[in-house]
Amino acid sequence: MSWEHIELAIEDTDTGRIATITLNRPEALNALSGSMREDLLAAINEAAAGARVLLITGRGTAFCSGGDVRFMAKLRRQGRWEALAPLIEQGKRVVQRLRDLPIPSVACVNGVAAGAGFGLALACDLRIASAKARFAASFSRIGLHPDWGTSYFLTRLAGAAVARELIFTGRLIDAAEASRLGLVNRVVEPEALAKDSRELAEELAAAAPLSIQYAKKAVALAEGGSLDEVLDFESEAQLACFRSDDALEGIQAFEEKRRPRFKGNAS
């Protein structure tokens, strides 16, 4: 499926369905404009309906350069302050949906990820970056404030001091520094990004879906919850998984020394 600047491809593999969303506005470094935010949310919802893993990437030489600054300049000249509010709300909804997805999401960062594009990458569960990728919380450079959860994710991934520096200065960092700061999981050579992303997706798709779903919630809870809260949730999740058909399959596969074939059934 495709929208004007958003493409969705869903592929059946031996381990399960893999969905890939591609931001397709390469002539503008995939800057978010028009209905892209709304269409991105629709594509994410479509992917969640049947896929086991979601990959998000950008067409051309950029992942996403953020919001369309030329469009924002037009709004300023016209005095249409209120026109930005629904765009901000749509960005919030994308981030919230990514966090609530029952399947893992992976940002495959092929080039610059700046402003809202940086936030989009950070909102995914995992990030795999080309060695040519660049990241920037560039909002302060044009007098704006971080959105798309950038301040939230930066603080939790890299700590408050690093978040302050990157947000205050808006400076561009390369993939190596992003990896050192804990902002990306892997850095690969540009020509290997597609292959390595696919291999990671297949590895994630092979895992038990219910286990992944609960694990996402557990890690999110661990970011702000107490140890007792996390322990209680882990106990509930473990019992729910143990009752599932996938646990039966996983245990039998272990005993039979074969690869499990998970179906994602709760019971």
Describe the structure.
The chain is an alpha/beta fold and 267 residues long. The chain folds into 2 domains: 6-205, Alpha-Beta Complex (2-enoyl-CoA Hydratase, Chain A, domain 1); 209-255. The protein is built from 11 helices and 10 strands. Strands 1-2-3-5-7-10 form a 6-stranded mixed β-sheet, with helices on both faces. A 4-stranded mixed β-sheet has the order 4-6-8-9. α5 (150-158) packs across α6 (160-169). The model has no long low-confidence stretch (mean pLDDT 94).
Give a short synopsis of this structure:
The chain is of the alpha/beta class and 267 residues long. The chain has eleven helices and ten strands. The protein has two domains: 200 residues, 2-enoyl-CoA Hydratase, Chain A, domain 1 (Alpha-Beta Complex), CATH 3.90.226.10; 47 residues.
User: What is the helix fraction of residues, given as a range?
Assistant: 40-55%
Helix run count: 11
CATH class of the largest domain: Alpha Beta
Q: What average pLDDT do the residues reach?
A: 94
The share of residues in extended strands comes to 15-25%
CATH topology of the largest domain: 2-enoyl-CoA Hydratase, Chain A, domain 1
The helix-and-strand class reads: alpha/beta
Structurally, how many domains make up the residues?
Answer: 2
Q: What is the N-to-C order of secondary-structure elements (H for helix, E for strand)?
A: EEHEEHHEEHEEHHEHEHHHH
Total strand segments:
10
Q: For the terminal residues, how far apart are their CA atoms?
A: 32 Å
Over all CA atoms, what is the radius of gyration?
A: 19 Å
Shape: globular
| Name given to the CATH homologous superfamily of the largest domain | 2-enoyl-CoA Hydratase, Chain A, domain 1
Instruction: Identify the CATH architecture of the largest domain.
Output: Alpha-Beta Complex
How would a textbook summarize the main sheet? 6 strands, mixed
